[in-house]
Amino acid sequence: MVEKCEQSMEFTGFLGNEQLKTRLSGMFRREKASHCYLISGPEGSGKHTLATLLAAALQCTGGGEVPCRRCPQCRKLFSGSHPDFISVDDETRKTIPVEQIRKTCADVFIRPNEGRRKIYLFPHAEKLTPADQNTLLKVLEEPPDYAVFLLLAPNPGLLLPTVRSRCAELHLSPLQESALLPALRQRCPGRSEAEYRCAAVSGYLGQAIAILEQAEPSPKTAAFLEAFAARDTLGMLETLTSMEKWKREQLLPALQEWSALLTEALSARYGAPVSNPALQTVRDRRTAREILEAVEALRQAETWCNANVGTGAICGALAVKL
Ligand SMILES: [Zn+2]
Asked: For residue 149, how far is its CA from the centre of ligand 1 (angstroms)?
């Protein structure tokens, strides 16, 4: 066990996982911080965020709740420049060469440079071969007091039982939509509610952000926004005509997306932020009244879609209105 640490942890920026937080805080309060943690969860579930918080909490020299984020140790750790927070990985390979693990094991016995502890982060512990793990096991069994190991993996089952038995296991859970949606709105402003809800289905903040950042508008949507912004009647007609043969199940989500986007452009006219450059153009070139009329036309078209009106007729009516 690591020496005394009579503090509890604070978790700003790390959402959900209440049981895990209580457990970790309890470990700190009861002076039972472990030498080795196995943090597991899928890509984007917060493994790195938690590992950084934990490392900072272990190095922190401030009083009260840890990490304090103000002491020199915390600052270095959060800026990625702490000499005693060491990442062990080889990004060019699918596994970590056993030679690198041997060097790490030797390094463990050199005292920390300036921190209270020397913390080794394995950002992809799943890349540790059985030989790597057996080599590592020797130091995991009897580490120096100051040494801490943070193993990150998508699934704890990817490590040998002998290694797992040395670790305090921390498994990250998906978040409730009620926790995820406000965080998403804050981290990726200017998207439609439909987009936030779609992205939030994954349950993990990192994944949801990645989904939103990758989401490009579909070609039809891009053409629609461009034609609408430029008052390009011919462009609008071409876009809608090319959709006349679509099935209703295809057309409805497109109409919903368009009305959500235009609603967003409308809010943007009253100062709300927009991330999509096409929406900025709509905001700048069309009046609030025009955008509102277009949203109403699209919503009317959605009701027709739900009432089984033919897609050709819907697209034709929209072409007239827009
Ligand atoms: Zn601190």
From this structure: 19
Handedness of CA 117, 121, 126, 132 (dihedral sign): negative
pLDDT (0 to 100) of residue 45: 94
Q: Which of 37-46, 104-113, 118-127, 183-192 has the lowest mean pLDDT?
A: 183-192
Structural domain boundaries in the chain: 18-171, 177-214, 219-321
Largest CA distance in the chain: 77
CA of 155 to the centre of ligand 1 (A): 30
Distance 299 CA to ligand 1 centre (A): 53
Apex CA 101: angle with CA 73 and CA 72, to 5°? 5
Distance (angstroms) between ligand 1 centre and the Cα of 118 equals 16
CATH class for domain 18-171?
Answer: alpha beta
- Give the Cα separation of 132 and 120 in Å (integer): 15
The Cα-based distances of 136 to 100, 149, 164, 292 in angstroms read 11, 10, 12, 64
Q: Which of 175, 237, 162 is nearest to 201 (CA)?
A: 175
Task: Specify the pLDDT at position 124.
Answer: 96
Predicted confidence at residue 3, as pLDDT, reads 45
The better pLDDT of the pair 79, 271 is held by: 79
Q: For 41-62, what is each residue's pLDDT tens digit?
A: 998 999 999 999 999 999 999 8
Ligand 1 geometric centre to CA of 33 (Å): 17
